[in-house]
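Chain A, query sequence.
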Amino acid sequence: MHYAYLMQCADGSFYGGYTTDPYRREKEHNSPKAAKYTRARQPVQLAYYEEFSTRSEAMQREAALKKLSHEEKKALAESFVREEK
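Chain A, predicted structure.
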């Protein structure tokens, strides 16, 4: 499976991306070797994700998520029910 996701950073901002495992990616974003944006805004928390059968679909949705306003991203995060893994 492929996923488009949003991480919510400690400063309230959102970071969007694509992955094959959103929970593993959350751990990576909280590590010292995280992406520059999230490394400076740790801790981050998985705020939202959508599942897709193809990488292409997930990457298209990632691009669309990144274009959303902060308020739209916040609304998605508030509606998201996180599964604990």
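The beta strands are 2-8, 14-19, 45-52. The chain has one domain: 2-79.
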